[in-house]
Amino acid sequence: MPIAFENVSHIYSEGTPYRYVALSDVNLELSEGKITAIIGQTGSGKSTLVQHLNALLLPSLGRVTVLDRTIEAGTAPKGLKSLRGQVGLVFQFPEYQLFEETVLKDVAFGPKNFGAAEEEAVKKAKTALKMVDLGSEYYERSPLELSGGQKRRAAIAGILAMDPKVLVLDEPTAGLDPQGTIEMMKLFYSLNRNYGKTVLIVTHDMEQVFLYCDEVVVMTNGRPMIKTDVKNFFEDSSRCRELNILPPALIRMRDALRQRGFDIPSDADSISTFAACIAKQVKHHG
């Protein structure tokens, strides 16, 4: 089943002087089984869009189809608990999701809430914590005592423990150091490639989009302006600049080399590939 938005609008504070249209007549289909980046300027509607996927927000107009569920404006949604077990959402600020006395209890809460016995829930929590590199030394610590990066890992573990089919991540690497960012993105990549999970990532980091994502959706003024595969999106970096998006470092390097007469193919996607291209041509460039 697809993940689709049909003529979806979302209006905050309807009927008040603070009325704000965050999404406007959105028609969009998101690919299952892929890693899709949702990008765009602040206020473009990215977070509002993804919060419709587990009915945290409901459409003011239109309907959203997620897996085998339909969420329609003006109709009370059914089966929300099971939907939220299948679509896991990690907020931009992880402390919003942490509330239990200990890290282990916090991560085990989700499985228990969905019917797992205590022993099974704890087992799932330990597995999820291991996946995000939080070992047994963190089990009995208060989640609120963790560093920003550790809170982010604990919040993600709490979602992974429920084994969702769709993982929705709002700025998932905020607060992590460079190595932690790489490890976390590799985890999401593994969850997609090895376990078939659909991963949606709201991000401003074009390096992550370029290295780990399959498709990209560009939100502008509450609507999807572009939906395409990542290779096509970065084929012409002038489009990024028109959208005030800084292209990834490798794309900027490719453009700079081309300006100096080097023939760098569009499918070059690593430093080693660039080096090989340059080595073959350097004799002709003095």
Structural overview:
With 286 residues, the chain is of the alpha/beta class. The chain has a domain of 39 residues. It contains eleven helices and ten strands. A hairpin with a 2-residue loop joins strand 9 and strand 10. Helix 3 packs across helix 4. It is globular, with a radius of gyration of 21 Å. 36% of the residues are buried.
Mean of pLDDT: 90
Q: What is the global morphology?
A: globular
**Helix- and strand-based class?**
alpha/beta
Provide the gyration radius in Å. 21 Å
Estimate the strand proportion: 15-25%
Q: How many extended strands?
A: 10
Number of helices: 11
Order of neighbouring strands in the sheet with most strands: 6-7-8-3-9-10
* Quaternary assembly: single chain
Q: Provide the helix percentage.
A: 25-40%
User: Biggest sheet: strands, sense, closure?
Assistant: 6 strands, mixed
Distance between the termini: 57 Å
What is the N-to-C order of secondary-structure elements (H for helix, E for strand)? EEEHEEHEHHHEHEHEEHHHH
Low-confidence stretches: none
